[in-house]
Design a protein that fits this description.
Elements: E1 2-6, H1 11-22, E2 26-31, E3 45-49, H2 55-64, E4 68-71, H3 78-83, H4 85-106, E5 110-116, H5 139-158, E6 161-167, E7 169-171, H6 183-193, E8 197-200, E9 206-207, E10 209-211, H7 212-223, E11 229-233, E12 239-240, H8 241-251, E13 258-261, H9 276-282, H10 290-301
Parallel strand pairs: 1-2, 1-4, 2-3, 4-5, 5-6, 6-11, 7-10, 8-13
Antiparallel strand pairs: 9-12
Helix pairs in contact: 1-7, 2-4, 4-5, 6-10
The protein binds nicotinamide-adenine-dinucleotide.
Nicotinamide-adenine-dinucleotide is lined by residues 7, 9-13, 31-36, 51-53, 72-76, 91, 95, 114, 116, 144, 167, 169-170, 179-181.
Protein name: NAD-dependent epimerase/dehydratase family protein
Family: Belongs to the NAD(P)-dependent epimerase/dehydratase family.
Domain NAD-dependent epimerase/dehydratase: 3-230
Length: 303
Amino acid sequence: MKVAVTGGAGFIGSHLTDYLLKAGYEVHILDNFSSGHYYHDHPNVIVHEVDIRSERAQAIIAEEKPEFVFHLAAQADVTRSINNPCEDADININGTINILEGCRKAKVKKIIFSSTSAVYGNLQKATIDEQDHTAPISYYGLSKLSAEKYIQLYQELYGLDFTILRYGNVYGPRQTAKGEGGVIAVFMDRIKEGSCLKIHGDGKQTRDFVFVEDVVDANIAAMKNDRNDIFHVSTNKPTSIIQLAEILLELHPDSLETMHVTSRTGDIKHSCLLNGKCCEQLGWMPKYSISEGLKRTYHYYNS
Ligand code: NAD
């Protein structure tokens, strides 16, 4: 079976591509390599170095006619979205519309979209479910939410099926210090350099950290689900930045120092996503605890 992965050269997309190739799919990667890398050298992978906003990207999907399109390519950096909202909207909204047009023309069976907890903004709630009010506080959150709305409207107007997966903070091997959820990758870089871990604000801000292999499993589970719906891909467990640092201190044999610096604009204070709907309806469960996932990530960066 033929599938397309936009952003297949990126952190999450490359792991998803690994899985799909191992499972025997023909995988078309559409990526402009703005933050991605060449990870794949496999007879069943076809890499199209292309911008998702281009006519060529739309034509590739329209002509190749993949059954499923996993749409991950994005501008995924919150700070960059604040500094350059036009570029962020262009990639995340116009780029998505362009991919949707390709899907519509190709009569793609389903688009599976990587979305984010950033669509909720700073909700004053300990836990969030998919019905909660969306109120992004960054242009990135807003552009991803807009992309979701376009995907839903394409379903209503053209019957293009979708699954929207809103991720917590994804982490794991190959993540770079840029982009969303990057704190773990930043810490890994600093450990390698032997420098101290910088914690923004008081470090009590929490995130729902989900390991990249669990995110891949959710994308695969979404292929089999016939509902057009939104699901959280998360662990239900908040972890503070201070807790992260403590786990890393245990893993790292040498001493590690931490230092507090000013908090960042657009940063959400707490984010913990309930994943019950995804578990029930997609038959998915996260397999990795934060300790196990961090251990694997630590060993990847230090091997
Ligand atoms: P990433 O930056 O590693 O991957 C994005 C990929 O998209 C890169 O390979 C990049 O080269 C490509 N890309 C960017 N702009 C492009 C364009 N205009 N045309 C073609 N390709 C382009 O990011 P990631 O962390 O792997 O994120 C993947 C998806 O998951 C994104 O949609 C992101 O919004 C979403 N997401 C990520 C997280 C996280 O914690 N990493 C959390 C929530 C949602």
